[in-house]
């Protein structure tokens, strides 16, 4: 079935008018849970560099990539390592991934990054570390606006330990892009909502990302979200939905194959593992009581990853 294109709102991070930007973000998060973010400060050149280094990595022979295979979250995930929809009969999502995070602090020690050797990919690590730091700057700015959008103090997410310098992770993705000969939709990433607070996505421009605005409507209606060069596609995750008592929507999305190889980079702005996520006072009242009990971020992630990743049990360290 042909899908239609969803025109998402565009947020300009360089606008000096913080209050109107926060209002636009609020509207976007209430309506879609998805928006484009432009003028965010990460150069197109930087994004292209990360995508091309990612391509270099995924072009390595499988046995060299398997040396970096993940045991927890960080490292290489071969095809079909993740499966979001347990109901799907297929063996798993048709994508390869590589996940890395900060090398600093407790998390950097507990979950060391698995960097490819310098002989193989000399420019890889500096490009990836630079990207991490650049996107963190965007995340810090964006979360201050999200706090304003929720009528909170600008530094709310910093104060509650949600905004951590070390907890966010970067996931490089490669979709091989084969089509299912039977004409069925082939999922590179099956339908899911993101687990954390906010995700910032960059792609190489190959289509495939789709969102479903109403997950309760059967059958699900999927709309295409095309990439805009230089802009991030930003979406709300489940922990933000819990914080806001469902006011901000963590929208179902997926990546379908269009018969072309596709590369993307997702940055998950996850809260500190010890941060307790509980309904914001401004988002509940007597007629709308909290819908979700408080949860420690790390407990929540472990629960979700153990449902979606093959052999995740080794990830329990804190
Ligand atoms: O590759 C994409 O465009 C989206 C990936 C995604 O939704 C995810 O990894 O959570
Ligand atoms: Fe996602």
From TrEMBL:
This is Fe2OG dioxygenase domain-containing protein. Residues 166-271 form the Fe2OG dioxygenase domain. Belongs to the iron/ascorbate-dependent oxidoreductase family. PROSITE patterns: FE2OG_OXY. Gene3D superfamilies: B-lactam Antibiotic, Isopenicillin N Synthase, Chain (2.60.120.330). Keywords: Iron, Metal-binding, Oxidoreductase. Transmembrane segments: none annotated. The keyword Chaperone does not apply. PANTHER family: 2-OXOGLUTARATE (2OG) AND FE(II)-DEPENDENT OXYGENASE SUPERFAMILY PROTEIN (PTHR10209:SF830), OXIDOREDUCTASE, 2OG-FE II OXYGENASE FAMILY PROTEIN (PTHR10209). GO terms for molecular function: dioxygenase activity; metal ion binding. InterPro entries: DIOX_N, IPNS-like_FE2OG_OXY, IPNS-like_sf, Oxoglu/Fe-dep_dioxygenase_dom. The keyword Iron applies.
